[in-house]
Amino acid sequence: MAASVLIVDDEKNILVTLGRALRVEGYDVDVAGSGKLALERCKLKTYDAILLDVQLPDLDGLEVMRQIRADREDVPILVMSGHGTIDTAVAATRSGAHDFLEKPIGSERLLVSLAHALDRGRLEQENRELRERAGGGDALLGDSAPIEALRRSIGLVAAANAPVLITGERGTGKELVARAIHDSSPRKSARLEKLNCAAVPKELVESELFGHEAGAFTGASRQRKGKFERAHQGTLFLDEVGDMPLPMQAKLLRVLQEGEIERVGGSELMRVDVRVIAATNKDLDQARRAGEFRDDLYDRLNVLPLRVPPLRERKSDIPLLSARFVGQSGKLNDRPHKSLSEGAAELLLAYDYPGNVRELKNLIERLVILTPNDVIGEREARALLPIAAGESSGSTYVEGKTLREMLDDLERGLIRRALDHHLGNVTATADALGLERSHLYKKMRALGIDHRADDESP
User: Fold this and answer.
1) Residue 55 pLDDT greater than 50, yes or no
2) What is the pTM of this model?
């Protein structure tokens, strides 16, 4: 398949010249004469590379690049500039552009740079997929009863062909469960297509799912296949299905019932053989009662329900997950091998992780990067946990504790975090808290905080 390239420039002769040179080489080329039009094009189509002028009449080229990167951080962008905008082009390169081409651009220079950008984009995509597969079982790692039950359910569900509805909090690994189902199913040799229903503008969901014909709407310059068509004989994963607009819910239901799709702007019905796996962190029962989710679609999707347990329900898996993430983060960030101290491990075990496995993984990566020593200690872990594990946040009532005890917990946590922030320097901590040093020492002794700190530490 030809690589697709978007050329963005306000000079018509450049669009014509570069477009002709690339089409002769077999590239699929679109053009845009302004930053706004370029952003609209990127919403309608996924490009393999973008040629972007840094000086546009409506938007700054760096701002256009930033907005494109917000949706597609992996797309290679080559910036173009005239003599007067080279500084801007250099800034764009430092901001992540693959290369910059000074006008006038020779065809050989253009083709070589574009080929390198596409090769790099493909390599990064392959590396990302390999990393995902290598860490794909992370959310399912563990020997707790809840995770073992989930693995058994995945094995049973994978062999079937009926729709699956995966529920669970954010960060529990619902997408990884969907991939595990697909990879263990008879459909594993075909594609697994994914659509995040919460991330796509509601007016584009239909085109994303069913595709569109050329001229179906403004900007639809050519025919485009949708997710259902690309997932034929494979699996379609609908993430955050609870955010799908109601009109689209009705159209999705019809496809699930009849197994036929029609591209936007088309009149031909096409048969598709697709297994749908949906996921949500919403309470769909509540959404049904509120009229935000169709009862018939819920019944159709919920043939095989799977619930992914939150991390707080499988805390015995945290040590195993933590060890895995420490090793992965060290390799990924080129850090020497590290380990968790007993105190740090206990703190990690005590925290409830509202962001679940994803939050634990991100926390471990920060610890690996920011800890200079080979052993990640309790101090480092306590400094990075949102609230010191085992201590009251001050906004939660703890049954069995008096008000004084809860206030002591809050004060103890705040002082410890302040000490960690100032690397144990009591004088600096007292100044930051607006206390006399002797008063802070007195409080620390009363609250049972180890005050053997180095007052001369930086």
Assistant:
1) yes
2) 0.59
